[in-house]
Design brief:
InterPro entries: Cro/C1-type_HTH, Lambda_DNA-bd_dom_sf. It is built from 5 helices and no strands. With about 80 residues, the chain is mainly alpha-helical.
Length: about 80
Amino acid sequence: MIHENVEKIRKAKGVTKTHLAKKLNLSLQGYRHITSGEVKLDVERLNVIAKSLGVSPAIFFDNKLTESVIKDLNQANSKEVI
């Protein structure tokens, strides 16, 4: 669930995997291991991801991360770009 939510939010925010990998001091492959669930996310890395995406770490634990939440994130991101 957490890994999937990280990816949903990353995409909604328009952030690349490469950008997050760099923020985490990982290779792209290392980042993929995290988002695939092969490697567990620790609190420190989760906080770095949340900060990079401009969200609270708690959102990653929302097992009902709905399309409306993603839509809200997209709209907030669009306003930041304008």
